[in-house]
Design a protein that fits this description.
It contains 15 helices and two strands. It is mainly α. The chain folds into two domains: 254 residues, no CATH class; 37 residues, no CATH class. The protein has a two-stranded antiparallel sheet with strand order 1-2. Strand 1 and strand 2 form a beta hairpin. The protein is globular.
Length: 328
């Protein structure tokens, strides 16, 4: 039976495009070509997964947050403590970190389903601050300011593929983090093109109209917030597993700020924005730090100002500036 034109139009955005497949092939080729930079590739993959979690709630549902570090930190400590108990299977540890992040998101979701954007900003920031102080207070469990050291991970046992030991060069870690990132990207790409994903975008644009249609706004906000928290927990678990160390740093404000900056650079509201932003932010951070270790944040801030004033599209296409300037 032939699909109706309306159904075909709705399915069209969910189809994989040639450039997307080519981009993922190029991404997977990077660790082979630049194996000496495996540690940086691993960091980019983790930040990209973290950015996807924020993009899901900010870009698609319109939930502003300055506390994604709360879920990131819970996932990191959960996976690290799980490994410290002798349960060093990476995939099980990843599942634990993801589940803990999602559980915290479900518990705190009632705080964000009501109120204005400013209220949500303060509440999410407050949750991260509370968890930071709790982790510092219970230092016998978390290691406090000294961090949780001695996190030893076992090998990756993948059926039909083989057994892979984590190496000091982070080569296995980079492939591991990229595989998790790819799985999350495919999952979210499918989700945002389902009726639930479309309703989230409608919620972002006009929540009153969505409620008038008889759809539950609080339920959708809570569901997407929980899923985003689980993804952030997975990113935190990857950090703990691939670096074998966790500190209070995972709960600090700069974690939430960095992922927000990455999303601003890449663009919110499309999944590739998190990936592009993570790559650009990490490369800029490393490059500017190498050039000027003390003032790299100044140059990064200047780039962000230019990005906001000129516009992302116009900055990438300077030959079009003369047609219509964004200023008088």
């Amino acid at each position: 039976m032939k699909a109706s034109p309306a159904a075909s139009a709705l399915r069209a955005p969910s189809r994989w495009r040639a450039w997307e497949l080519a981009a993922w092939v190029a991404i997977w080729a990077v660790p082979f070509v630049a194996g000496s930079h495996a540690a940086l590739i691993n960091e980019i993959a983790i930040l990209a997964l973290f950015a996807l979690s924020l993009d899901l709630i900010l870009g698609f549902a319109g939930i502003v947050s300055l506390g994604q570090a709360a879920f990131f930190g819970v996932g990191a400590y959960g996976a690290a403590l799980f490994a410290k108990q002798g349960l060093d299977d990476p995939l099980l540890g990843l599942a634990v970190g993801t589940a803990l992040g999602g559980a915290l998101g479900a518990i705190t979701s009632p705080l964000i389903v009501r109120g204005s954007d400013l209220t949500r900003l303060m509440l999410t920031l407050g949750v991260a601050g509370v968890l930071l102080e709790l982790a510092n207070r219970f230092d016998t469990l978390t290691g406090g300011a000294d961090g949780l050291q001695g996190v030893v991970m076992g090998p990756l046992n993948l059926p039909l593929i083989g057994r892979f030991e984590f190496d000091l060069g982070a080569r296995v870690a980079s492939f591991y983090s990229m595989a998790v990132l790819f799985a999350a990207f495919v999952l979210l790409r499918r989700l945002v093109h389902t009726p639930l994903g479309l309703s989230l975008q409608a919620l972002r644009d006009n929540p009153l109209r969505l409620e008038a249609l008889g759809l539950s706004v609080p339920a959708r906000l809570a569901a997407v917030y929980t899923l985003a928290a689980a993804l952030a927990g997975a990113a935190g678990a990857l950090l703990a597993q691939t670096t074998a160390f966790v500190s209070l740093d995972v709960f600090e404000f700069h974690r939430s700020a960095e992922v927000l900056l990455a999303l601003i650079i890449g663009g919110a509201g499309w999944l590739w924005g998190g990936l592009v932003g993570a790559i650009a932010f990490k490369l800029l951070h490393d490059g500017l730090s190498a050039l000027t270790a003390q003032y790299w944040s100044f140059w990064l801030g200047l780039i962000l100002v230019l990005l906001m004033v000129v516009g992302r599209e116009r900055l990438l296409r300077p030959w079009t500036w003369w047609r219509r300037r964004p200023w008088p």
